[in-house]
UniProtKB/TrEMBL annotation:
Similarity-based family: Belongs to the FPG family.
One protein family per Pfam: Fapy_DNA_glyco
Function in brief: Involved in base excision repair of DNA damaged by oxidation or by mutagenic agents. Acts as DNA glycosylase that recognizes and removes damaged bases. Has a preference for oxidized purines, such as 7,8-dihydro-8-oxoguanine (8-oxoG). Has AP (apurinic/apyrimidinic) lyase activity and introduces nicks in the DNA strand. Cleaves the DNA backbone by beta-delta elimination to generate a single-strand break at the site of the removed base with both 3'- and 5'-phosphates.
Domain (Formamidopyrimidine-DNA glycosylase catalytic): residue spans on this chain: 2-119
EC number: 3.2.2.23, 4.2.99.18
The UniProt record lists the keyword Plastid: no
Organism of derivation: Candidatus Nanopelagicus limnae
GO MF assignments: 8-oxo-7,8-dihydroguanine DNA N-glycosylase activity; class I DNA-(apurinic or apyrimidinic site) endonuclease activity; damaged DNA binding; double-stranded DNA binding; zinc ion binding
Name this polypeptide is given: Formamidopyrimidine-DNA glycosylase
Cofactor: binding details: Binds 1 zinc ion per subunit.
Subunit structure: Monomer.
């Protein structure tokens, strides 16, 4: 959390407000704001023009009129808000960038808010338009280069359970705990079934279910359970109302009426219906 739908909601919101504007100032307020691998301080972006806002999986970056890019990863609780410079300062603001338009009108800011400080910003080189830290990340299902046959074959060859396979960002990017649980419920696949024991059609169904649920979440502005995820306007997403299993331990499955179970899974929780996904 945030996962692909939340990051895409932030990306599209930023695109609406910041493309075409220049970064006039850059400030950081916490020692962990800038990723250690950043090739320069955030001030290197001052004077640059924002040409586009891009995303792959859970990674987001501002394409600048420079030979480097400004990357953001929201971690567990990161937010990128676009606000007037006169707006009150948030308690957990870790960085901010002042923006100016071509005509010099308005003094909006991009503010990076991160309560738990697991998110980060970074100045990075690019290769074919992709930042250094994203090079190893697999195509996400909404990219034109995504090849579902290749992904199915890669998952089919794995000896691990299906859930960690679809959470592996080098196999299928963008899916996190929430949408993995929801996709497996839609596909009627137990999260602990070993990939080798699934047919190619079953694996494909898991992937198409993940795509379907994430499309719906994007339309709803993502999933918000608390104040830690907001879009660029500071508004919460409302897809949590549509979740079928995630966070619903003990509630009735909407498909069969059985109680939703929760099991421990790699320092996380996994929610599923023991009847539908048995």
């Amino acid at each position: 959390m945030p996962e692909l739908p939340e990051v895409e909601t932030v990306r599209s919101g930023l695109e609406k407000y910041v493309v075409g504007k220049r970064i006039s100032t850059a400030q950081t307020f916490h020692p962990r704001t800038v990723k250690p691998g950043s090739i320069a301080p955030l001030a290197a972006a001052v004077g640059s023009k924002i040409q586009a806002v891009k995303r792959r999986g859970k990674f987001l970056w501002l394409e600048l009129d420079r030979d480097f890019t400004l990357v953001a990863h929201l971690g567990m609780s990161g937010q990128l808000l676009v606000q007037p410079a006169s707006a009150p300062i948030q308690t957990h603001m870790r960085a901010r960038f002042s923006l100016t338009s071509r005509l010099g009108r308005g003094r909006d800011e991009i503010r990076f808010i991160d309560q738990r400080t697991f998110g980060w910003l970074s100045i990075e080189e690019q290769n074919n338009g992709i930042p250094t830290c994203v090079q190893h990340i697999a195509f996400d299902p909404f990219e034109s280069e995504f090849d579902i046959k290749q992904v199915v074959a890669k998952i089919k060859s794995k000896k691990c359970a299906i859930k960690p396979a679809i959470l592996n960002q080098e196999v299928l990017s963008g899916v996190g705990n929430i949408y993995a649980d929801e996709a497996l419920w839609r596909a009627k696949i137990h999260p602990e079934i070993i990939c080798e024991d699934l047919s190619e059609d079953e694996i494909k169904k898991v992937i198409t279910s993940a795509i379907s649920v994430m499309k719906s979440a994007i339309k709803a502005g993502g999933t918000s359970f608390d104040q830690q995820y907001k879009n660029v306007n500071g508004e919460s997403g409302y897809f949590s109302r549509s979740l079928k299993v995630y966070g619903r331990e003990g509630e009735k499955c909407s498909r069969c009426g059985s109680a939703i179970h929760r099991i421990a899974f790699a320092n996380r929780s996994s929610h599923f219906c023991p009847r539908c996904q048995g």
